[in-house]
Amino acid sequence: MVQNLKDLYVHGRIVGKANYVFTPEVASSLGAIHGSKFKENESIAVGQDLHNDSRMLALGYQAGVISTGVNILNLAACTYPLLQFTIRRFGASGGVYFSGGHLFSEDVGVRFIDAGGIEFTTSKVDSIIQDYNNYPENIRRVNPNSIARITNIPQTDDIYIKSLQQFVNKKKIENADLKIVIDCSYGPTGRIAPLLINEIGVEVIALNTHYRQRAKNPVPSINTIRNTAEIVKASKSHLGVCYDVDGSRILLIDENGLEINFEDLLMLFVAYEERIRKSKGNTIISTSTISPIVKKFVEESGYPVKEVGNFPGEISKQIREERACFAAADTLKFYFPQYAPFSDGNFILLKLLEIMAQQDDLISSLTKGFPKGVKINKSINLSLEVVENFHNLLRKMVDEQGYEYYDIINELKILDNNKTTSTTVKVALNRNAVTLSSESEDPKDAKEMSSTIEKLINDLK
Questions:
Q1: Geometric angle at alpha carbon 33, from 107 and 110, rounded to 5°
Q2: What is the distance between the alpha carbons of residues 14 and 120, in angstroms, rounded to a whole number?
Q3: How far apart are CA 364 and CA 368, in angstroms?
Q4: Is the pTM of this model over 0.90?
Q5: How confident is the model at residue 33 (pLDDT cuts 50, 70, 90)?
Q6: Where are the alpha helices (DSSP H) in 372-419?
Q7: Is 149 helix (H, G, I), strand (E, B) or coil?
Q8: Contact predicate 454/461, CB 8 Å
Q9: How far separated are the first and last CA of the chain, in Å rounded?
Q10: CATH classification number, 5-154, choose in 3.40.30.10, 2.30.290.10, 3.40.120.10, 3.30.565.10
């Protein structure tokens, strides 16, 4: 049994390997702690990804919650955005989601959500950790006659799909005659995305829609991303999409099989998304590691930029406080407040398809003229064996070196100690190599950091 829950605290979330440190007993205790923060007969929505370890921990958590007299709305296997949507739609008092995520592919993480569908900030998670470490203080146990209910919620997928369609010009998209390839990453997205895309009149080739046992390498992996890129080219599709396993973000591949980076996507939405264009003068929220060239583009387009730390729940919180018209995190998360104050991979995709339809053009063409930052770029050849396991190897390496970093699906964005210089490391799609791209207001700092990261990567060979 974990004595100090802080031992499982990683990047603002509770994360651990199921049955090793993150046991059903720990999950049940978390449920009792979380449930005790609500009034009796209130309801909490619960969801998880498709994996058995996530399901086991979710069941343990539910036992703890109902022991406090708080009801469970059980979505079972679902995407994270669907759970957030359901909390808002059905008026739940909060929620919790269990998932392996992308960065910690062998572990399970738990995310706590408030009544607005927004993930707990670090201070709220700290409160749960403190209560766990003082267990069983602050725990409410009801008598047997007051033990709460667990209720399944059917047809939430259908309600969610219909709701998403109301925020885009469905007819315009349908008339554009688009074709896309999507990789559902063996997650709950496979039950939703193909139906959603088909209903808006887009031809879809869907990959990895089924369940697969958790593997050591994160999903989507470099192999599944490469497969998607190849199928996009072979099928002459207009776009490729790789979903994160929880459905909250997507990696985009253009018609040529090339990745579309975060910076270009942010500028694309600012330049072409109608609701944002009509909100000039309103704040756009982004992370403090935003590229200076992108920040300048946004400000010159007529929007003040507020930079915030890349912590769970922080961007959503700032959207509310600033009444922002748009927000983006360089972990490939994009927030459209007219829909919800959280990132949803399906909604991001619908907005991209709408822009393509309205502009009658491809993403590669629409982003071609955007400004590019002054960066130090480097390519390093690696063996296939290293490339296939590169994400895990790189994460371990930067952890050992004490760097702060962000997961961008096929990249890690690594920050120097002063957080003024960053290096993104990306696996190439067309050869066994990685590319380094370092940026800083001082080119000397960028060059120095690029050289340091290059030496560390060479040690992986």
A1: 20
A2: 11
A3: 6
A4: yes
A5: very high
A6: 384-388, 390-401
A7: coil
A8: no
A9: 38
A10: 3.40.120.10
